[in-house]
Amino acid sequence: MSQPGTTGHAAFRDYPLNAWYAAAWDHEVGRNLLAKTVAGRPIVFYRTTAGRAVALADACWHRLAPLSMGKLRGDDEIMCGYHGICYDADGRATFMPAQDTINPSATVHSYPVVERHRYVWVWPGDPALADPDTVPDLYWNDHPDWAGDGKTIHVNCSYQLIVDNLMDLTHEQFVHGSSIGHDSLSESDFEVTHTGNTVTVTKWMLGIDPPPFWKRNLQDRFPDYDGPVDRWQIINYTAPSTVAIDVGVAKAGTGAPDGDRSQGVTGTVINTMTPETDNTCFYLWAFARDWCTDKQVITTRLREGVSGVFFEDEVMLEAQQRGIEANPGYDFYNLNIDAGSMWTRRIVARLIAAEQGSDTGRDDDHSDHAAAALSAVTAAENARTEAGNGHSGTGMEAEVGDGVAKHRDRPEAGLMGRGI
Amino acid sequence: MGATSHKRWGRARVVDVCEVAQYVRQVVLAPERMDAPAPPGSHIDIGVYVNGRADVRSYSVVGSGAYGNEIVLGVQLARQSRGGSAFIHQLRRGQEVQVTQPLQNFPLNYGRPGYVLAAGGIGITALVAMGKTLKARGADYRFVYGARSRSLMAFVDELATEHGERMELRVDDEGTGMDVDELVASVPAGGELYVCGPAPMLDAIKAAWARTGRRPSELRFETFGSSGRFAPEAFRVRIPRLGLETTVSGDVSMLEALEACGAEMMYDCRRGECGLCQVKVLDVRGAIDHRDVFLSDAQHEKNDRLQSCVSRVVSPHTAGSGGDRDAEYGTVTIDVP
User: Fold this and answer.
1) Measured between CB atoms, which of A331, A369, A378 is closest to B49?
2) Predicted complex ipTM
3) Which chain B residues are Cβ-neighbours of A380 within 8 angstroms?
4) What strands, in cross-sheet order, belong to the sheet with A77-79?
5) Contact at CB, A398 and B72, closer than 8 angstroms
6) How does pLDDT run across A274-307, given as a tens digit for each residue?
7) What CATH number is given for B9-103 in this structure?
8) Structural domain boundaries of chain B?
9) Whether A380 and B92 lie within 8 Å, measured CB to CB
10) Which residues make Cβ contacts (< 8 Å) with residue A10, sequence separation at least 6?
11) Does the model's pTM come out above 0.95?
12) pLDDT tens, B209-234?
């Protein structure tokens, strides 16, 4: 049974472990030691000479010194910098100091790793469940029909706050007023749908003046067009923390809502968040586009432009995290605009519950808690009734209550005496 | 003020139950833990048992007792109740209930040049503590308490004694019903009007307030989404996309009925404020009884969406558009996220 006393919306800070998390860009993992904490697990990443990415627990089996302070050895091994114990890519010891044998239990955990679409994904949970087919499909990152690039931001907030941020883009009007914000964002209706582990939020803004960012993008392709546009934002969430947003504008009235985007430009904002700790995360993002894909200057312009936009988010998200921590007794008040984020949180709560062997989920429905409490109350009440005490019996028990005693001591404490 | 406190559930013992008006019982609870007296305007959530199911209801805190360690509620056995008030009315001394700490969504702003409190019927429970506080602070206030008839008015003698000439009763069947335009006009510039009452009264006051062009933020009101234009009755809901159809009986919400029949629903406040449990209305036979405060009047009139936690549907007969009394249910065809 859920315990809402410990998991309010605002305090929500859990992440599933049985999930692929993007730990780094592919180019960051090489013949060097990269230390990263993923989902609370310290991990050291490196690449074998054959090119395979490796993720080992960043704590030597011997006395827990970080292996990331050691060095690479041979084609695929890592040597602890403290006493020289060496491990292969599977985490098995290959060398022990001051003994001729290898201690058979000398291993460190080797995390499942998959490289896909320019990211190195790691699975912090049960390796038996790590299915490479479930890595989120972010093909835009390395598909020939798309061009783009991105960065990593280390953000001092729960990864869930970034998911929230991306699931409700009305914030663009207020946080990003100078670039992608537009009054129509908070005025337009949106539609939310969901499946078992995905959520989609769709918003169309028809016949609007494009905000500066999109005006320029459209003019990359149609230099002479200066008119109104149809703008779309289709937010696609995949649990637990990947959000790919199909965004773009087309010349107004040219059929984009019906699927004809030939008179427009389309981008995909690729976002995947990796929890580091309860209240910090890595935010790996990229912006891929389908127009002028041969122009590196546009790739750089968009990467730096989006980077500036996301810095505005970073400032707000870190301040929000501090706000949450400064108000420990308070919950979020969720609004209609939070529907997308609420679905993602429900899915994540279910994933966590499944890992913990619970079948009820850690949702925030207080009535669950009240239900449990009430059934106990009701059972006790029934027991009393069965004992033949009836109402007079329960009344007698009440007499010992503090409040009743006080009430009797002060007969004048009628209605007004009770302070009403 | 205004942020949402994290609810803490705890036990409370029923220490007193007594009739304070026709259909109204005062229930005094002694919570196991009470950190501070309940602030004026606060409410508690209480675990209730309705038709064999556990559920949660919200009731305004009338007062905190002479020692500030009790929770006094006034609960009307509502004709339009879905069963929560019946549970409260069955409580007896010595029983235990589960309650939250006092929660504040209706705070009183201090330091205004004048106040008008307007209670309709059982809505008085939300304003009793405000009146007491305003009096204690020496504020300039007017306390208007209306109801259909005097026998239904809880706490009326005590309030008249406490507030003297500042207390004005408006009793429909005594020919002194409430005049909302006069009420609104009597709020001094910079003053505030606090309202708690049934939906039609609230709607009338909101409309009168808007007509005067006054700042919306100076009209304060609270709703638990519990009363509408019509008494609750059973109606049918269909979700063609999911192939689901169910009957919403008079004592459950549409949200609950949809969940029970297998539609996965999103929601949060469950009192018609937040807009999360909104569903799209594709067709309606009968009339939608909107009971939320999320949508505007204009949006209500479009009838293309509704808040499923509080809003209901009534039959064409009930809505006054003909049809046999028992021949058909109201029916609404919807889609959900």
Assistant:
1) A378
2) 0.74
3) 96
4) A71-73, A77-79, A86-87, A93-95
5) no
6) 999 999 999 999 999 999 999 999 999 999 999 9
7) 2.40.30.10
8) 9-103, 115-221, 235-335
9) no
10) A324, A327, A330, A331, A332, B6
11) no
12) 999 999 988 999 987 655 778 888 99
